[in-house]
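Thought: the user wants the 3D structure for the chain below. I'll pass the sequence to the structure tool as-is, report back what it returns, then summarize two notable features.
Action: structure_tool
Action Input:
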Amino acid sequence: MAEQPNENTQEVKQEELKNEENSRQETAQTAEEVTEEKQDKDVKEEPQPKTDDKDAKIAELEDQLLRARAEFANYKRRMTEDMIKLGTYTTAQVVDKFLTVLDNFERAEQQVLGLTEKTQTDGDANGGNEILKAVVEGMQKIRKQFDETFKKLDVEEIVALNQKFDPNLHEAVMRGANPELADDTIDMVLQKGYKIREQIIRHSKVRVISNQ
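Observation:
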């Protein structure tokens, strides 16, 4: 009867030791699981690399600067083109007013030249030939000034005589026949035409061949 309590006590101690061992194992396992969970969480929460805000802002400003420079270049080009067009239009309007004067001057020049030739043919009894020569020289100087001024303004005469009729450059006011010339050939210029660069100031008034 005295050994029964000892056996029970021993079983109780063994059970307690077993429970303590199980508890230690569970604690170790729990700690390991917590550690692994924390590591997983740290990996997941690790910040992803981001584009540097400063570099992005610099790139944006550089792009805006390039766009602004391109827009300014286009604006400057348009303004230059508009100024050239305005200058051409203004010059054409002014030159057009002087063309009537030039036409009259050329008619007078032709008359003086005709008188000079007549005087030379008929003889110069009264010294009139010398006077006409002086007049011709003066008119030639004036004509030279016209030509130089037109050249500075980029104004040039439209070539018409013996050219093929072009409605963009010429105005047909007469029709003529000449079997030696092809149809639509200009054989007479009644009034000279002028242009400034590509803008027509005045069309040439011409006679055009039509053999049909």
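Final Answer: Structure generated. The first strand starts at residue 155 and ends at 157. The chain has two domains: 62-153, 155-212.
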